[in-house]
Design a protein that fits this description.
mainly alpha, 2 domains, 20 helices, 3-stranded antiparallel β-sheet, globular, 468 residues
């Protein structure tokens, strides 16, 4: 393979086209979000968000093009150096950064520009994780798995300490490449269970959640028994579960469900299935303790603005309609008012009237919803899904484990950003201040996603070569 073909003609141009399509749509939506009919400005006016975003787009295109000229091995060689620099910046921003929306996570730059180190950390962590896994045999080894988790857990903790748990959540997207490389699914199941318990613990009485824990443990216990006994006990569980509708009897149901669990565990012991029974005993005790600690965590660990965001998501009746709930209510109204085809570009009353706060950043999707309607939002989502599909296809055709891990890391980061941002504008996810990739206003975010994609394209251009 010639150097020319590896560096240019083998670039995945479908990915490039989708990238530019989303970036340009974002630029037009940012312009619409700041458009004032009484005093219209140009797209390149640097005094506006749209003008600055145009500058970021040009800079991103230049940086992305430059990356395509660099040898892929270079990024792997310096991956831990970039990771170290990112960790250093995350530490420095806590001492010298500027506070924005309660988070100390930005460096102020001349000209009114800002830089968020956590955006660089996403790329650096993804690169470092790919390098580490490419030099170790398997994530099924506990030491390798713990080290791999530690690589993305360190920046996540530092971002949480900055007061930005939303951005910290993104680093857990790197569990996706670990799963692809063979990590046990028990970890993912356990994480899903504890997230569910946290949500249930906030929405319901702890006794009711404890009953759920007991029944869940019982069903897992009987799933390992003979089919005949499984069906008998499942029928009993169904009858017992139906009693939960009678809330005044929750204490009696708790006692019955606990007894039911003990019977299921005893049956497992008598059938010499002690390992499962012992595991379930410990798991139920841990989950029960966690259930009763949820309220303490919520009211004593989380900050007030973080509690407000969760209330807006799970319990809007407890949120202030003129305070914490205002953003989400206005976001829903803007998206819903667009109808099927939207109100047309620059014709959105709520957008031009500035009724939706942070509309050019976190709530940029509402501009699409109001002015382009359901069809416009559907088209944008299709473009994002096409990008994720393309990245996954790129990942699977690699001969290099390093590139495959890196590609799935990028896919995971994009997926979480997409899911949370669009979800929070519609009230199905908490409002945690995560930008919409390539579309939200912000140089740090745009440059970070551009570098991620450009490096992946450079790796993919030499996929036929042996590149460990």
């Amino acid at each position: 393979m010639s150097r020319r073909s590896a560096s240019f003609w083998d670039i995945d141009w479908w990915t490039v086209a989708i990238y530019f399509g989303l970036a340009m749509i974002g630029w037009f939506m940012i312009y619409a979000a700041g458009y004032d009919p009484s005093a219209p400005t140009g797209f390149f006016d640097l005094n506006t968000e749209a003008g600055k975003q145009g500058l970021f787009l040009l800079l991103s295109a230049l940086i992305g093009s430059a990356i395509l000229l660099i040898e892929p091995q270079f990024f792997k060689t310096i991956s831990f150096i970039i990771y170290g620099v990112a960790i250093f910046l995350l530490l420095m921003v806590m001492a010298y950064g500027a506070a924005t929306n309660g988070a100390l996570s930005w460096f102020s730059l001349p000209g009114g520009f800002k830089f968020q180190p956590s955006e660089l950390a996403k790329f650096a962590t993804c690169l470092a994780l790919a390098t580490y896994l490419s030099t170790n045999n398997t994530v099924k080894d506990s030491r390798t798995a713990i080290t791999a988790i530690g690589i993305f857990l360190l920046p996540a903790v530092l971002v949480v300490l900055q007061g930005d748990p939303g951005s910290a959540l993104i680093f857990f997207a790197l569990m996706i490449p670990l799963f692809r490389e063979g990590m046990t699914p028990i970890i993912y199941i356990a994480a899903a269970v504890f997230i569910l318990l946290f949500i249930l613990g906030l929405m319901y009485n702890p006794v009711q959640v404890l009953i759920f824990v007991m029944l869940l443990g019982s069903l897992v216990a009987i799933a390992n028994l003979t089919p005949q006994l499984w069906w008998r006990l499942s029928l009993a569980a169904l009858i017992l579960g139906s009693i939960l509708f009678f809330k005044e009897h929750t204490l009696y149901v708790l006692g019955a469900s606990t007894a039911y669990l003990l019977v299921a565990l005893i049956v497992n012991f008598t059938k010499r299935k002690k390992e499962l029974a012992s595991f379930l005993m410990v798991a139920v005790l841990v989950m029960s303790g966690f259930t009763y600690s949820v309220n303490y965590l919520f009211y004593n660990v989380l900050e007030s603005h973080q509690r407000d965001r969760i209330n807006v998501w799970l319990m809007p009746e407890k949120a202030d309609p003129r305070g914490s709930y205002y953003n989400l209510r206005q976001s829903k109204l803007a998206i819903g008012s667009g109808g099927l085809w939207g109100k047309k570009y620059l014709k959105g009353e709520m957008t031009q009237g500035n009724f939706v706060p942070e509309q050019h950043t976190d709530f940029i999707f509402t501009v699409v919803g109001e002015e382009q309607g359901f069809m416009g939002t559907f088209g944008v989502i299709i473009l994002y899904l096409a990008l994720l599909l393309r990245i996954s296809m790129v990942a699977e055709r690699q001969r290099s484990r390093f590139t495959r891990v890196y590609a799935y890391g990028i896919a995971g980061i994009f997926s979480i950003h997409l899911l949370v941002n669009i979800g929070m504008t519609m009230g199905v996810m908490p409002v945690i201040g995560i930008p919409l990739p390539l579309m939200s206003y912000g140089g740090s975010s745009l440059l970070s996603f551009t570098v991620m994609i450009a490096v992946l394209l450079r790796f993919d251009s030499q996929r036929l070569l042996v590149f460990r």
